[in-house]
Amino acid sequence: MKKLILIFFTIFFSVSVFGQTQKTLTVKGTITDSVTNQAIGYVTVALQNAKTQASVKSTLAKDDGYFELTVPAGKYQLVLANMGYKNKQVILKDTVLVIDMGKIVLSPSTNQLDAVTITGVKPLMKQEVDRLSYDVQADPESKIITALDMIRKVPLLSVDATDNIKLRGSGDYKILINGRESAMMAHNPSDILKSMPASNIVKIEVITTPPAKYDAEGLAGIINIITKKKADQGYNGSAGVNYNTVYGYRGNLNLTIKQGKIGYSGYVGSGRRPYLGSEFGNTSTFNSPLSSLVQSGMQYRGGSNTYTSNELSFEFDTLNLISATINHFNGVNSTGNDQLTTQRDANNAISQAYHLLNNGTGNNMGTDIGINYQLGFKHNKNQLLTASYNYNYSNNNQFNDVSADQTLNYHSPNYRQYNNSGSKEYTTQLDYIQPLKTLTIEAGGKMILRNNFSDFHNDTLAANNQYQTAAKQTNNFTYHQNVYSLYNSYQLKFAKWTFKGGLRLERTNINADFTATGGGAFNQDYNNLVPSVSAQRTINATSSLTFGFTQRIQRPGINQLNPFTDLSNPNFINIGNPALRPAVNNNFELSYGNFAKGSINLSTHYTFADNTIQNIVTVNNAVTTTTFANVGKDKRLGVDANIQYPISKKIGININSELLQVWLNGTYNGSPFTNSGQQGHLFTYTSYKFNDGYRIGVNLGFDSRYVLLEGRDNWYFSNSVEASKDMANKKATFSLFVGNPFSKFNKLDFFTKTPDFQTYNYFLNYYRTAGFNFVYKFGKLNSAIKKNQRGISNDDTSSGGRN
């Protein structure tokens, strides 16, 4: 009933129209061609402040050339702009409240128009030939929410109840920061994005048909997060603080500086999550022999993280540019489990019982350093040659201290686990772009030298009350992977059509050693020729149709390869598989975008892959082991809809939705195993903007259970309300928010079912949140920093997320 009341309130809130007492100015007219005298549709029409030239409101003329704009009374100028016509500028009289311009004539121009900056109403979405982009800065909520919350609004993306990011329902993708792989996203991007305010981000690109210049990995595609980089002569920046009852405190500072030919842009942030506990439990039933296992208890989690991103550029002259980047992340977390385990036989008698305590710590850190040189050419400023080098290091240090008491037929000694894993990457890349009249040619080469490692050991408590290292549970695992690639792509652009296609050739050499676990050493070499094709048909000035096909490679990452056996819960073991092989995915998509009023994007896609990496669960003597294996055939047919629509001048609504049909085929104990079903999500945001700087917004979200080879995972429903106030001439914003106010916890459950056993797991997740956010902007700038237009983006390894 509470959910129904909240939904009813949101619908009512979305369609309510509040009265106004302030005087308004209405400007209207019809736009025609000076030569043909025919109406011109979809012309950009903007009202600008007559003194500051700042855009106040904008719109697109209708098919018949008619437009109408209403704004608070004042002094304005009218600006009209359209491709193929000269800009027109008209100073308006401020003595009347309704101005009928009648017929406004635009003259054709033989030169292409420069872009007119419209800072009033901006579309949130943009459809390009191979990607969708979401303009975060155009979203008024960007001043209030975190970067992870903003992800929920982006077309084709979703976030589940445990904060896992999905691209079209898949965890197989790559996250880039400004087109480059970043150490900040190496292990748990959700933790970073929860600490980072959305105001740090300019836009988020979802690249579902990656062109040939991108590495071929990422079954579902690439998520490219573009952060603030503009800086002018002088400086500007912003500082923010935030508090959340569940996620704790965070702070963030952004700074951009430009002095002469030297420019700097960067940000630093930190967050601390309190150490909180919640209930969990699981029940397993085994068929041969018939028995059951029940666990219940409390799990705890808390920690802190700090991150920074910096870029420095120097312009030798108009043709030579050098830039350097350095990113760093450090996260420290504490975990704990207090659980009781009871095992019963076929007669329901207790055959084993014990009480287990586990105290753990983890330290994730990463650093990446890059340098780029860009050479321009005098005769064509868009012709570029770029040389890049990047070093990336990430590390995850894990420790568990496990002890047992209250035991019955439990003879395992207390033990401590240590695992130090990570990767080092050395990347060199050369890119060349040659633009012609209607054709753009790109070519390049790349070399990635990657070293994944895991040094782990297990120490058990001996009779002398001292911990001794267990020889069979010790290993220094190394996994060398070198990738050499060449690419060539072409883009043809006509008046109504844009075509983009290319080929990427990749050669992969693997040399692995995990002899201490009895697996020995192995070498593997393979080649991949990866095509990508996309086309866009412009229907009119505000709508387009896009088609794409690409192949993507799924290479296993260190989280999936690592042979470290996680024994923190001895009846539920997790272990990686060093023998995993890559899989190839085929993706077809068709989408329609319309930006006449707000933004609408509708798309459908079909993907299929063989030999995919799947989570596999097996049972031996009541011990459940989860690992990865190349056993899957994955087919997905889906539809996506993303709508950002201004119901009125003050009310706007954003809808992000997806529905998928999934077919999975694999093997279990050597026999065929299948699963299929539907999954999807729906997120909505509705906002109302008051005249005096106040804004209120309501979020509703639903994420379904996802289809797994051997079961299903959790679903959840979320709701939140936030209110904000712009202050100090819009330099400061203060906001309050409440999330899921009707319940302290929500229950997240998962189930696995095979011919041999079935398991049901659940845990209570902190649900109700409340807090505040404050952001202050400072500084003044005049001209933009020049940036390299090409650079390294290592997107060729799997994130290790759930399938």
List the helices and strands and how they pair.
Layout: H1 2-15, E1 24-33, E2 44-49, E3 55-60, E4 66-72, E5 76-81, E6 88-91, E7 98-106, E8 125-127, E9 132-135, H2 147-151, E10 157-159, E11 165-167, E12 174-177, H3 189-195, E13 201-207, E14 222-227, E15 234-244, E16 248-259, E17 262-287, E18 290-315, E19 320-344, E20 350-377, E21 380-408, E22 415-435, E23 439-461, E24 467-469, E25 475-493, E26 497-513, E27 521-540, E28 543-554, H4 558-561, E29 565-566, E30 572-575, E31 583-594, E32 599-620, E33 623-646, E34 651-668, E35 671-689, E36 694-703, E37 707-708, E38 711-712, E39 716-727, E40 732-739, E41 745-753, E42 757-766, E43 769-780
Parallel strand pairs: 1-7, 12-14, 30-33
Antiparallel strand pairs: 1-4, 2-3, 2-5, 5-6, 8-9, 9-13, 10-11, 13-14, 15-16, 15-43, 16-17, 17-18, 17-42, 18-19, 19-20, 20-21, 21-22, 22-23, 23-24, 23-25, 25-26, 26-27, 27-28, 28-31, 29-30, 31-32, 32-33, 33-34, 34-35, 35-36, 36-39, 37-38, 38-41, 39-40, 40-43, 41-42
What does this structure look like?
- The protein has 803 residues and is mainly beta.
- It is built from four helices and 43 strands.
- The protein is globular and about 95 Å long.
- Residues 1-21, 110-121 and 795-803 have low confidence and may be disordered.
